[in-house]
TrEMBL record:
One of its GO terms (molecular function) is DNA-binding transcription factor activity. This is Helix-turn-helix domain-containing protein. GO terms for biological process: 3,4-dihydroxybenzoate metabolic process; negative regulation of DNA-templated transcription; positive regulation of DNA-templated transcription. Pfam families: HTH_IclR, IclR_C. PROSITE patterns: HTH_ICLR, ICLR_ED.
Length: 259
């Protein structure tokens, strides 16, 4: 992917401001000026100007040494959710699905090489990672991601695969190009994807697409379960029909809402 360059359509100072915001994370909830500069590749003077601007706007607070984000930063993320009220239509159906299957249910969208969670309905905590709305996971190694990737044109899928950093998350993780392509194509052909312990040991999930009026995949819905209580056979034979029913119902609602 070509990195945008400064010009009439690219505001570098704004891009740098977003980099500063993204430098804060669970591993770095508060940082000194020097740490922000090092994380973003900015000079101390440049990082200071951006941090003070964010502080003036209320997105950052400081105790003179450490900077941290404020709750106001959530406004930026929730702007996406509130601008797309269709997710309000999906949540009641997800609640019903969770009541039936007694497993956690999620909806996610694709963002380059990641999936981003836009809705979560929990039952039990099944991953060591605390997933919530806004959380990201690698698209190629999640059932949600493979369903979303399956909706891409073949040339775009291959382009993303070529940029994919490889990581062996578990002994079951597929990292070979041909294997990954085969599994994504299988998801495209059958209309769903089952992923077994490729991202985390003991975790399996099954996902189905949510489509718009034109039949394009715009999101994905999944059910996740731990292998000590939900086998792969149970996911496929018992839970898949209910998942497909829910995903198709949400797709119909999306079409109705947009008319």
């Amino acid at each position: 992917m070509t990195t945008p360059q400064p010009g009439d359509t690219y505001v570098q100072s704004f891009a740098r401001g977003l980099e500063v915001i993204r430098s804060f994370s669970a591993n770095a909830p508060e940082q000194t000026l020097s740490e922000v500069a090092a994380q973003t590749g900015l000079t101390r003077a440049g990082a200071r100007r951006i941090l003070l601007t964010l502080q003036t706007l209320g997105y950052v607070q400081s105790d003179d040494r450490y900077f941290r984000l404020t709750p106001k930063i959530l406004d930026l993320g929730f702007a996406y959710l509130t601008s797309m009220p269709m997710w309000d239509l999906a949540e009641p159906l997800m609640d019903q699905l969770v009541e039936k299957v007694h497993e956690s249910c999620s909806t996610a969208v694709l963002d380059d090489l990641d999936i981003v969670y836009v809705l979560r309905v929990h039952t039990h905590k099944i991953m060591s990672t605390n997933l919530s709305v806004g959380s990201r996971l690698p698209a190629f190694w999640t059932s949600l991601g493979r369903v979303l990737l399956a909706g891409l044109p073949e040339d775009e899928l291959r382009e993303r695969l070529a940029r994919l950093p490889r990581r062996q998350y578990t002994q079951y993780t597929a990292v070979d190009d041909d294997v990954l392509l085969e599994r994504i194509r299988e998801a495209r052909e059958q209309g769903w994807c089952l992923l077994n312990q490729e991202l985390e040991e003991g975790l399996s999930s099954i996902a189905a697409p949510i489509k718009d009026r034109a039949g394009h995949t715009i999101a994905a819905l999944n059910i996740s379960g731990h292998s000590n209580r939900t086998s792969v056979d149970k996911l496929k034979n018992e839970l898949l029909p209910q998942l497909l029913q829910a995903s198709q119902a949400i797709s119909r609602l999306m079409v109705t809402r947009r008319r």
